[in-house]
Every structure is written in C-alpha cells, then in structure tokens.
Amino acid sequence: MTRIRLAAAILVLPLAAGCGFQLKGAVQLPADVKSVFVATNDQLSPLSVELGRALRASGATQAASPESADAVVRVLQDRTGQRVLSVSTRNIPQEYQVYYVIGYSIDHGGKQAVAPQEVELSRSYSFSESDLLAKNREETILREALARDLADLVVRRLASL
Questions:
Q1: For 19-116, where are the alpha helices, taking DSSP H only?
Q2: What are the residue ranges of helices labelled H in 19-131?
Q3: Sign of the torsion formed by the C-alpha atoms of 150, 151, 154 and 155
Q4: Of 34, 82, 89, 126, which is most buried, counting CB atoms within 10 Å of its CB?
Q5: Is this structure's pTM higher than 0.85?
Q6: Strand pairing of 61-62 and 35-39?
C-alpha cells in the first residue's frame, strides 16, 4: 500500500508543478519588485508584522523610503475587533466573531497599480466563562491568523502586478 502511495505522489508532483501549483507562502514577486516600502501608521500592528514576514518570505526587502522602493504598499486602514454572535438564555455571550479589516493600495513604477480597496476577514469561536484565559488566548491566535491571511493576500496581489 505504501508503494502505491509513493508512486501516486511521484506521478502527481510533476502535474501539480505544471499547472502552477505552489505551496502556501511560496509567492514569487515580479522580477522588477525587489524592494517594497510599507506605508502604515502603526509599524507594530499584527498586519504590519505579518506583512513584513510575508515580504521577506517572498524574497523582497523592505525599503527605507518610498523613493527607494520598487513598489509601495499603502495601508489605509488597519482595524480589528470582535462582535457577539450569540447569547445564552441568561444573556451571556456564547459565541464571538473576531474580524480584521484592512484598506490598502499599491503603487508600482510611480503610478497606482492597485486602486484603494477594503478587505475584511472574520472567524468565530465559542466562549465559556469557565475557560476565560484560554478563550482570550484563542481570540489572540485568531486575530494573528487573520492578519497573516490578509498579509498573504496583499503579497499575492503584489505578485500579480
């Protein structure tokens, strides 16, 4: 059975590579985008941190100024929060939704390549008063995951230039 799986994997890999399949996070930026400047008000927000990580993973360097960059990502909005999705009969929250909203545009070659757009991602989680510390940590983990997904989305958009 193991040999059959190995043979199947060997046959599928060239097909996957031929159709343009890439592992998540393996984004190739265009040859003329080697340095990127990220214009944001908060360099320490989860999105800014994850955007820097995603750019480094794709082989780009972060430029010190917009003038020295091949592309400029302008973060116009960087907002996160949570909403109550459901409550119990005693009016105690049972389910929350964590959301992350960004607005961004991309300049390339001295002109706007991507018009300002807004993207929102959200995830829900159950809540229990007896697991308060664990649920607070779960919320933090979800928020970081949303920021990572949004940063990857911006880098993929940058790769499509």
A1: 46-57
A2: 46-57
A3: negative
A4: 82
A5: no
A6: parallel
Q: Give the model confidence (pLDDT) of 3-15 as tens digits.
A: 566 555 555 555 5
- Entry field: residues in the chain: 161
- Angle, helices 132-159 vs 46-57, to 10°: value is 50
Tokens 């399949």: give the residue: 21
Token pair for residue 41?
């008000």
Name the amino acid, one letter, at 100: Y
- Give how far the C-alpha of residue 64 lies from the chain's centroid of Cα atoms, to the nearest Å: 22
Q: Pick the closest to residue 102 from 157, 47, 38, 41 (CA basis).
A: 47
pLDDT tens string 88-146: 999 989 999 999 999 999 999 889 999 999 999 999 999 888 888 888 899 999 999 99
Asked if 31 contacts 58 with a C-beta cutoff of 8 angstroms, the reply is no
Which tens digits make up the pLDDT trace of 28-50? 899 999 999 999 999 999 999 99
